[in-house]
Design a protein that fits this description.
251 residues, alpha+beta, Arc Repressor Mutant, subunit A, Alpha-Beta Plaits, 3 domains, 10 helices
Length: 251
């Protein structure tokens, strides 16, 4: 599952220069609206909504903007029109790519996504073509902050983690989606610094590509994430440490 960790690492390194704040707020706002519409506007009772609000606050999204996004869920208009779609496709080297969408115009979004795949050396696939390679997991990023990684791993297991991955000192804790809240509370109680917690799609196994294919895939994934309707992008590729370092140097 370390493929998820490496791609997440690349995204974090490039976020400062590559993410426009206005676009990020648009994406978060849509995710808040969809979460509130599907699970209710009470963040205490709707854990998915609480997670995205926490992520929005981490990115300094104003509280009134968050509240407007929640109100849209009950007020019709854009909130009622938004629908979640999962697109599946293949990138350079046969990489599997899953694209999570929140859109009010499926035809427009499908055309945009297909265009990015085609220009990036990949192709959009049929429903079910690659989704079977992924599973829904809770993922918690923990900052060791001076603690030994082995100690963090043991504490995470004690808190109920199903698996723990350590990559270049970064610790990611994997849980059953339904257990994410409980495991996070356990980590908090242990005094660990939780950098993020989300329910996401994780590859069941990963593949490796050569350097040229990895570079082409990163460009494809970035172009997909630049689309306003795209919420998240996932792949089953295990990026090399050299690629992660290279992306960090360019951020």
């Amino acid at each position: 599952m370390s493929g998820h960790s490496k791609w997440a690492q690349i995204k974090r390194q490039k976020a400062v220069t590559d993410v426009r704040k206005g676009q990020l707020f648009t994406k978060l706002g849509r995710e808040i609206t969809v979460a509130a519409r599907e699970g209710g506007a009470d963040a205490e009772a709707n854990y998915r909504l609480r997670l995205v609000i926490e992520r929005a606050r981490e990115h300094n999204m104003p509280m009134d903007t968050i509240e407007r996004a929640i109100k849209r869920a009950a007020g019709g208009g854009e909130g009622a029109a938004l629908e979640q779609v999962m697109y599946e496709g293949y990138g350079p080297g046969g990489a599997a790519v899953l694209v999570e969408i929140a859109t009010d115009n499926r035809n427009r979004t499908a055309a945009e996504v297909r265009n990015v795949f085609t220009r990036g050396g990949g192709n959009l696939g049929e429903v079910g073509s690659v989704s079977w390679l992924f599973e829904s997991r809770g993922v918690i990023a923990v900052e060791p902050r001076g603690r030994a990684s082995d100690d963090v791993v043991l504490l995470a297991i004690d808190a109920g983690a199903q698996d723990v991955q350590v990559t270049d000192g970064a610790v990611e804790v994997y849980t059953d989606p339904k257990e994410l809240a409980r495991v996070r509370r356990g980590l908090d109680e242990q005094g660990l610094a939780v950098a993020s917690a989300e329910i996401t799609m994780v590859a069941k196994s990963t593949i490796q590509l050569d350097d040229r294919q990895q570079e082409a895939l990163v460009r494809l994934l970035e172009r997909l994430e630049e689309l306003d309707d795209v919420q998240r992008v996932h792949t089953n590729v295990e990026f090399s440490a050299d690629m992660v370092a290279q992306m960090g140097a360019h951020s």
